[in-house]
Design goal:
Radius of gyration: 18 Å
Shape: globular
Strand order of the largest sheet: 5-4-3-6-8-7-9
Mean pLDDT: 82
CATH topology: Spore Coat Polysaccharide Biosynthesis Protein SpsA, Chain A
Number of domains: 1
CATH superfamily: Spore Coat Polysaccharide Biosynthesis Protein SpsA, Chain A
Number of strands: 9
Low-confidence stretches: 5-44, 258-282
Largest sheet: 7 strands, mixed
Distance between the termini: 37 Å
Order of helices and strands: EEEHEEHEHEEHEHHH
Helix content: 25-40%
Number of helices: 7
Length: 287
């Protein structure tokens, strides 16, 4: 869970005290397949929050440029977000929330509440997402970003089940950050002031949890998509994902990490939108 280059500045510890936005939709309860019992508010039940930015060219996945163009990086971010939301939709949870910076799009499936992000730095926005989701529905919260399209419903189910017996669950990322954080009883103080977007972010966050006396369940190490090399590795791990399809579409056009002299068939300034649309369905209502 890392920020783009424009967001690596450490924020002030004081968080923003705006009024949280009201949810616009809600998911339904599910049975937890790992425990073979119906989830409830305390013992294994809860909500999953995806924290994300609207995938606008030039504002997301800036570390993919170069070799990708801003439009291509945004297309990959859109596919990664769609994969993440689908995994959350398939995981056992009472509620599903999108903490969004920007506007929604056809990549948003039904059954998600949408909350606006608050705060300036990433630590503030993470803390606010936990706080706002928990205030709206006082349930345990599992939070994930949009950088791990290889995540599966089973991994998210493990995270939800972990909060039945532990105070927190933690998913370390290969770059030193973290891809998931779950809190049985969210508290902004557990995140505010943790230095974000650094190789030591994950260790600092885990240390903060343990210093607070919390029991922590560990999840598998996953690789974030930050660079072109990350994109290729993650696509190989999830070959049937929309993210892999989007990356393959770009490679077929001779762009990004697979570009070679004389291979590109794109006209200068022409965004490869048509092949990438095939990577995910249009979920907008029919007119």
């Amino acid at each position: 869970m890392t920020g783009d280059r424009s967001e690596t500045r450490q924020s002030a510890h004081a968080r923003e005290h705006g009024r949280p936005g009201a949810p616009r939709a809600a998911g339904d309860g599910r049975r937890d397949p790992l425990s073979c019992r119906v989830v409830d508010d305390i013992d294994g039940g809860g909500q999953i929050v995806v924290i994300a930015k609207e995938p606008v060219a030039g504002r997301v996945k800036t570390r993919l440029t170069p070799p990708f163009s801003p439009a291509e990086a945004a297309a990959l971010a859109t596919a990664a977000l769609a994969d993440t939301l689908d995994a959350v939709a398939g995981a056992p949870a009472r509620h599903r929330v999108l903490a969004l910076r920007g506007g929604t799009g056809p990549w948003l499936p039904p059954g998600f509440a949408v909350l606006p992000q608050r705060g300036t730095g990433l630590d503030e926005r993470l803390a606010a997402a936990f706080e706002d989701a928990h205030r709206a529905r006082p349930l345990p919260v599992v939070l994930i970003g949009m950088d791990t399209p290889q995540v599966t419903p089973a991994l998210l189910a493990d995270a939800m089940a972990g909060l039945a017996t532990r105070d927190a669950v933690f998913g370390p990322a290969a770059d030193g950050g973290f891809w998931l954080l779950g809190l049985r009883r969210p508290d902004p103080a557990l995140l505010l002031g943790v230095p974000m977007s650094k190789p030591t972010t994950g260790a600092a966050q885990l240390s903060r949890l343990r210093a607070a006396g919390l029991s922590v369940g560990m999840l598998p190490l996953l690789r974030d998509v930050d660079t072109a090399g990350d994109a290729e590795a993650v696509a190989a791990q999830a070959p049937s994902s929309r993210f892999a399809a989007a990356l393959a579409a770009l490679a077929a056009l001779g762009t990004g990490g697979g570009e070679r002299p004389g291979r590109s068939t794109r006209r200068p300034g022409h965004a490869p939108s048509s092949p990438l649309r095939e990577a995910w369905p249009d979920r907008s209502p029919a007119t």
